[in-house]
Write a structure and sequence with these properties.
Elements: E1 13-17, H1 24-32, E2 52-54, H2 66-76, H3 81-94, H4 110-123, E3 128-132, H5 140-156, E4 160-164, H6 168-172, E5 177-182, E6 185-191, H7 192-197, E7 204-210, H8 215-223, E8 232-234, E9 237-242, H9 247-256, E10 261-268, H10 271-278
Helix pairs in contact: 2-3, 2-4, 3-4
Protein name: ABC transporter domain-containing protein
GO molecular function: ATP binding; ATP hydrolysis activity
Pfam families: ABC_tran
């Protein structure tokens, strides 16, 4: 890791993005104090006595139940009795773990085990939460529930959240800041919206599915629009990038007037599109 200079404040929801092996987990481990830097330093504020940590790999006591695993870090912090049980019950409710509270963690599914890891971090009520791929193994509903809860913590409790994820679509809905790591370096640190807007991609794309024999005809109708961008096509799917607000109704009008139109969607560019555009890639983020 090199050229890393970050200042994390209360209320920040920081999405850490980058390809596999870029250094995201190492950076989070450094921030959590679990890895010692060979150069430089990680300074923890006076108001941060401890950090809530959710590692990418399973870190549980396999001999204990779900409830006992959640209570364990609380006991280390001196939180016991009714207060600890109340916190454990709250996070188990949030993460849909109440039904397996008395089950040993070795008997859990991968998704359930991941939720236990997240619950252990959240239950500490630390002012800084660092979570490495917390949504790995979670279904979309579970991911949404966790992310929204974390976002609520940043707003109401001014908790600082650092979270790495490959699910950039979900991350974009909650993160107010993006840190991109590439080959061990921080190549971007700023607002999420600015990350998207700085990339030279169409802010909106119209995607139309048309009859197979009419693709050329539909493309030609778009080309007749004054100042229209050049459509791309793949089979029966025609994609039209929209760079100005005035162009959108003209393109939609031309498409909906065609009797060969089968389906039509309008997609706005997001964090994932911007990330892939910086690498000239398409397809899944890896």
């Amino acid at each position: 890791m090199r050229d890393i200079d970050l200042d994390i404040n209360g209320g920040d929801f920081v999405g850490v993005i980058g390809s596999n092996g870029a250094g995201k987990s190492t950076m989070l481990s450094l921030c959590a104090g679990l890895t010692r830097p060979t150069e430089g330093s990680v300074i923890r504020g006076r108001m941060v006595p401890y950090i809530g940590w959710c590692p990418q790999r399973d870190l549980v006591d396999w001999s204990l139940t779900v409830r006992q695993n959640i209570l364990l870090p609380l006991a280390v912090l001196g939180v016991t009795g009714a207060q600890a049980r109340s916190r454990a019950a709250e996070v188990m409710e949030l993460l849909d773990l109440k039904g397996v509270a008395s089950r040993q963690v070795e008997l859990l599914s991968g998704g359930q085990l991941r939720r236990v890891q997240v619950a252990r971090a959240i239950a500490t009520r630390a002012s800084v939460l660092i979570l490495d791929e917390p949504a790995s193994g979670l279904d979309p509903e579970g991911t949404d529930r966790v992310y929204r809860y974390l976002a609520e913590l940043t707003r109401k409790s001014r908790t600082a959240v650092l979270i790495s994820s490959h699910d950039l679509g979900a991350l974009e809905t909650v993160a107010n800041r993006v840190v991109e790591i590439s080959e061990g370096r921080c190549v971007y640190d700023g607002h999420t919206a600015e990350y998207v807007s700085q990339i030279d991609i169409a802010p909106t794309t119209v995607i139309a599915t048309v009859s197979e024999h009419a693709v050329d005809q539909v493309v030609a109708s778009i080309a007749k629009i004054d100042g229209a961008p050049c459509p791309s096509q793949e089979g029966r799917i025609v994609s039209i990038p929209i760079f100005s607000a005035r162009m959108l109704p003209a393109v939609l009008g031309a498409l909906t007037a065609s009797e060969h139109l089968e389906s039509l969607t309008v997609e706005k560019a997001g964090l994932r599109d911007a990330y892939l555009a910086t690498r000239g890639q398409s397809g899944d983020l890896t």
